[in-house]
């Protein structure tokens, strides 16, 4: 047997150990290669005005994947080398030199790396057309046709080959510098007594409570250091929860003797206490990675909903038209073209002509509306109607203010006009605008008679609003008008036009963020697999000894299932809670509900987690069954 054959057989004999490492590395390379196919597509160099932001986003995703893959592969290699330390100790006792051991570890890691690169590229080629079509749908273009990605192949190979080379040199250092006696004793570590710290357990729950409370009340107390405080308290609380809090909860179960002594409960509670203590850091990492994945994907998935609601605030009506200075014939033609286009495309619409007074001041611009005109617009938008007396006024915002009470304009009790004998009493205010973003800063609503009196001293302009039920599909009409009147002296805005512009960016970020989030999720699942496999040697000895004193296969299966389920789903459930509180911040700040998209994302990941659990549970129990008497 040659040395290369020996390295190859080491891998084939440890197939179960290398499976998750190989598949996870292959998946990372597959995603990297798929993004590279899109980034080096020939269409990227045809119209760079359109593709520049796409290429930049894909490049950022490639960097993030490589950065994460480095630490992920580093952790994976360390996990497997730790499992095989006894094997390395035996090889050294049999006469293998340190140089030969270095060569063996290098060859094994590089062989796995090369196979991962080849498989990742082949799978990427298989799905390349799918990813190109998916990217085209995301950015609303048909320019991404299938091609032979030679450049993407070389970039992927030249990126991950040095990565595996560096890690193959770095990781085995811990084995080379460890004494043989320590390597041989690696699998004979005794279980130490579990000490329950009530103080640390209370601190864990207190940190989580503090972090959740800051997130829940972020809208009323958001500051520069609030997010850092939330991150600190939640991270510290998560680690302490797995290190001591969970052990404390298990200790409380032991106090209920009727439950603790029932059937196999004693077995899994005792074993789980040790496994939670030993795997606290791993469970912490899995929880944080899962929470990042869930939060990122749910946020990106929610962007479209948020953008549409923000757009409806900035542009309450489908089309808005108002003059910059004086009316002219050209702008009248623009309105006529818009109405003809809507009729030709079979869109129903309502037109509202609203007179308004514009009063520029030093720091802001006031818009004065008559009560009846404001109610006409409010009624079209299903907003509350306002009723004013002649000596009353009502204030409204045009921009979106997160805390309207901090604006001095809305804290005044009266408003004055030079031509009026007495100031008008402010009866209320609202942050929901009926006027388009950019026309002014604040709105003052006055009685119709007062507005008529003001018209005699201030110039009056007209605002044209078009209410279209299916306004999301009117983007092409707006683009045609923008192209026909590029230098118009009037302001013309279209909600659908800006919605299409924003959708391209949000869809691209969702496309990229989803795959990076999936990589994080796959890595989290791999960490769990690594840890279960690392503990397998200890567990099989434990169940072997218990089977000798009467533990049945059914009892072993139940005890092992409970332990695996808690190790699998405890991080998932805690990450889910983290996600809900993390998304509470944008919900409060933007005054939108993200419950529906968040539940959709978490449901998908929950189904994947359940499938992964049953597959791994089956393999794990099948392996333990071999050692049952």
TrEMBL record:
The keyword Metal-binding does not apply. The chain crosses the membrane at residues 21-43, 63-83, 104-132, 152-172, 193-215, 227-253, 280-301, 508-530, 564-583, 595-616. Keywords: Cell membrane, Membrane, Transmembrane, Transmembrane helix, Transport. It holds the Pfam family FtsX. One of its GO terms (biological process) is transmembrane transport. It is found in: Cell membrane. One of its GO terms (cellular component) is plasma membrane. It is a multi-pass membrane protein. This is ABC transporter permease. It comes from Priestia taiwanensis. Belongs to the ABC-4 integral membrane protein family. Its main location: membrane. Residues 64-170 form the ABC3 transporter permease C-terminal domain. The keyword Membrane applies.
């Amino acid at each position: 047997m040659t040395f290369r054959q020996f390295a190859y057989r080491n891998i084939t004999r440890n197939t179960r150990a290398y499976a998750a490492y190989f598949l996870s590395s292959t998946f990372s390379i597959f995603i990297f290669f798929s993004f590279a196919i899109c980034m080096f597509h020939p269409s990227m160099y045809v119209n760079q005005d359109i593709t520049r932001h796409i290429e930049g986003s894909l490049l950022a995703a490639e960097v993030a994947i490589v950065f994460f893959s480095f630490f992920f592969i580093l952790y994976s290699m360390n996990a497997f080398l730790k499992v095989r330390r006894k094997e390395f100790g035996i090889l050294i006792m049999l006469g293998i030199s340190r140089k030969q051991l270095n060569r063996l570890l290098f060859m094994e890691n590089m062989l796995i790396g090369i196979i991962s690169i080849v498989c990742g590229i082949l799978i990427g080629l298989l799905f390349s057309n799918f990813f190109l079509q998916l990217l085209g749908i995301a950015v609303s273009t048909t320019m991404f046709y299938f091609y032979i990605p030679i450049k993407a192949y070389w970039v992927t190979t030249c990126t991950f080959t040095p990565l595996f080379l560096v890690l193959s040199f770095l990781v085995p250092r811990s084995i080379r510098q460890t004494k043989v006696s320590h390597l041989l004793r690696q699998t004979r570590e005794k279980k130490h007594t579990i000490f329950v710290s009530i103080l640390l357990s209370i601190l864990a729950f207190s940190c989580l409570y503090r972090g959740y409370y800051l997130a829940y009340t972020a809208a009323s107390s958001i500051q520069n250091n609030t997010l850092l405080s939330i991150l600190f308290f939640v991270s510290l609380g998560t680690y302490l929860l797995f290190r001591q809090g969970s052990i404390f909860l298990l200790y409380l179960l032991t106090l209920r003797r009727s439950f603790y002594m029932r059937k196999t409960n004693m077995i899994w509670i005792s074993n789980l206490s040790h496994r939670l203590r030993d795997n606290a850091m791993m469970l912490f990492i899995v929880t944080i990675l899962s929470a990042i994945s869930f939060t990122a994907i749910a946020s990106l998935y929610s962007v479209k909903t948020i953008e549409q609601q923000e757009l409806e605030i900035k542009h309450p009506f489908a089309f808005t038209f108002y003059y910059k200075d004086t009316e002219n014939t050209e702008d009248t033609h623009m309105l006529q073209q818009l109405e003809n286009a809507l009729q030709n495309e079979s869109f129903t619409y309502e037109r509202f002509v609203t007179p308004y007074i514009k009063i520029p001041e030093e720091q802001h611009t006031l818009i004065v509306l008559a009560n009846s005109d404001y109610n006409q617009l409010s009624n079209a938008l299903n907003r509350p109607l306002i009723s004013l007396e002649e000596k009353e006024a009502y204030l409204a915002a045009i921009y979106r203010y997160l805390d309207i009470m901090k604006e001095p304009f809305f804290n005044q009790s009266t408003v004055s006009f030079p031509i009026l004998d007495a100031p008008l009493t402010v009866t209320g205010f609202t942050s929901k605008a009926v006027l388009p973003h950019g026309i002014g800063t604040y709105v003052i609503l006055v009685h119709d008679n007062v507005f008529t009196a003001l018209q005699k001293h201030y110039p009056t302009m007209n605002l044209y609003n078009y209410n279209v039920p299916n306004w999301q599909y009117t983007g092409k009409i707006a683009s045609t008008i923008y192209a026909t009147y590029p230098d118009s002296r009037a302001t013309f805005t279209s909600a659908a036009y800006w919605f299409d512009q924003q959708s391209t960016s949000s869809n691209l970020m969702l496309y990229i963020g989803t795959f990076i989030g999936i990589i994080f999720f796959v890595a989290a699942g791999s960490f769990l697999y690594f840890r279960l496999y690392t503990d397998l040697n200890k567990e099989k000895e434990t169940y072997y000894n218990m089977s000798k004193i009467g533990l049945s296969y059914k009892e072993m299966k139940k005890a092992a299932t409970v332990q695996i389920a808690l190790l699998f789903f405890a991080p998932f459930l805690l990450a889910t809670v983290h996600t809900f509180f993390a998304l509470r911040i944008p919900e409060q700040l933007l005054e939108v509900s993200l419950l529906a998209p968040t539940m959709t994302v978490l449901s998908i990941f929950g189904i994947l987690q359940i499938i992964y659990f049953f597959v791994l549970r089956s393999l794990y129990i099948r392996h333990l069954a071999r050692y049952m008497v």
